[in-house]
Amino acid sequence: MEAAAPALSQIGLAGLAVMGQNLALNVAEKGFPISVFNRTASKVDETIDRARQEGNLPLFGYFTPKDFILSLQRPRSIIILVKAGAPVDQTITAMSPFMDIGDTIIDGGNEWYQNTERRIDQANSKGLLYLGMGVSGGEDGARHGPSLMPGGSYQAYSNVERILKKIAAQVDDGPCVTFVGEGGSGNFVKMVHNGIEYGDMQLISEAYDVLKHVGGLSNDELAKIFEEWNRSELESFLIEITADIFKVKDEFGEGELVDKILDKTGMKGTGKWTVQQAAELSVAAPTIAASLDCRYLSGLKEERELAAGALREAGMNDDVNAVRTGIDKKRLIDDVRQALYASKVCSYAQGMNLLRAKSVEKGWNLNLGELARIWKGGCIIRAVFLDRIKRAYQRNPGLSSLVVDPEFAREMVQRQAAWRRVVGLAISAGISTPGMCASLAYFDTYRRARLPANLVQAQRDYFGAHTYERTDRSGSFHTEWSKLAGKGNNSVAAFHH
Ligand SMILES: *[C@@H]1O[C@H](CO)[C@@H](O)[C@H](O)[C@H]1NC(C)=O
Ligand SMILES: *[C@@H]1O[C@H](CO)[C@@H](O)[C@H](O)[C@H]1NC(C)=O
């Protein structure tokens, strides 16, 4: 007797590394039968085993692209979760011969947005639909509810909306998924999310550095403070895991593991892309750039050790680094909390303004409030304060910067004294706080009605006749600076431009 053919699956997933397996199990657990595929057969078996162990979930494994595709209900939708770049093209090439007009490919990797735009065109030429979908939340998020940032074909999104809304993280105002926009917008938004994540992690590490090296706090005290902060305006995933980190003992010796970890940061490239795009679009993103620079400098471990030695020999005073005496710990802790919050607001302002600039360039029509909403749950930067960002953009979708929203403006003003104290203390103690300093400089530059750019303009006109505008009359002006300064010689302008 022949076995009945299994009912067709509602969706497929190819690429069963950690993220892929977890996302597939999530889909199955929400009651949507799913087909899975991987070139390496053992990955398929592993996923099937997990689906059985985690409650006989409706997950079906296939070992060839053809069987995989033909096991799906039409119009078919497949999610691919492989390494960005060439592996995505290879997977599409393997799958698309078996797909029909109206079927959809969803790339869930951290892909460069322009690659997605190229693939959208290729897919369209075959009658296929395409989505580039940012997925954030790590393996746990993928399994229990990630934040999803799909962009590309709206029709493709509608076909899978039901599923995406069920598998995404759920927060008080809905599932953490929305149709982001056309083209590569989903990947772009995920990229900026990651850039903001770099900034958050950098700022938290600076808060730790100041508390530890200026305040002299122990890991035990740090764990308690981060737990406390997790019940404040800073409540967020990254603050929460930081509290946990300080509690973990070193299994090989005395003390806590955190102190034994090599101070060299890894990275995968989305932070760098964010900074490159900011420069490309003439958007200032100094906090995110500072966090990227810090990762580069952290990588120079051997050089930094040599530098420490060279400067000590040159007479660098050791008390530059010493824990301050006579510090009011309680006040320092409270100041650092405020400095961290204010710095974070500036970093998000930069990320949001980068998104807006790109949206204008590409005509994506991004809804910044809605993006803040889908980051409230599931993703690495999830935080209570994203709800405030959402509301700021709901109040005023054209908001030029978060720091001038009336609510945030009030908070920034309330925190600025503490913020300046922390940065000042860190600078005099020789503790680098590039993220907090970048945020503060961003704030102070942005809020000042008059900057020393007048002098830069004068210099440009002096050596390059670039002309300048005046504050008191319209038109562009050029001045024979060197003649009027009494030098009676114009050679500078002539030589240098
Ligand atoms: C299958 O698994 C391997 C790792 O075992 C991975 O490199 C590959 O990209 C996966 N994806 C597909 C679609 O085969
Ligand atoms: C942080 O806050 C969240 C939400 O209130 C809570 O679920 C979590 O247990 C807290 N974590 C720590 C380490 O305090």
Secondary structure layout plus pairing:
Elements: E1 11-14, H1 18-29, E2 34-37, H2 41-53, E3 59-62, H3 65-70, E4 77-80, H4 86-95, E5 104-107, H5 113-125, E6 129-136, H6 138-144, E7 147-152, H7 154-167, E8 170-171, E9 174-175, H8 185-213, H9 219-229, H10 237-245, H11 270-280, H12 286-298, H13 301-313, H14 329-362, H15 368-374, H16 386-395, H17 406-429, H18 434-447, H19 453-464, E10 468-469, E11 476-477, H20 481-484, H21 491-496
Parallel strand pairs: 1-2, 1-4, 2-3, 4-5, 5-6
Antiparallel strand pairs: 6-7, 8-9, 10-11
Helix pairs in contact: 1-6, 8-11, 8-12, 8-14, 9-10, 12-18, 14-17, 14-18, 15-16
Bound molecules: 2-acetamido-2-deoxy-beta-D-glucopyranose (2 copies).
In DSSP terms (H or I, runs of 4 or more residues), the helix count works out at 21
Adjacency order of strands in the biggest sheet: 3-2-1-4-5-6-7
From the alpha carbons, calculate the radius of gyration and give it in angstroms. Answer: 27 Å
Low-confidence stretches: 491-497
- Cα end-to-end separation: 88 Å
Q: Sheet with the most strands?
A: 7 strands, mixed
* Mean of all residue-level pLDDT scores: 94
> How many strand segments?
11
Structural class by sheet pairing and helices: alpha/beta
Shape: globular
Q: Per DSSP, what share of the residues sits in E-state strands of 2 or more residues? A: 5-15%
Family: Belongs to the 6-phosphogluconate dehydrogenase family.
GO biological process, one term: pentose-phosphate shunt
Binding site for NADP(+): 15-20, 38-40, 82-84, 110
Organism: Nepenthes gracilis
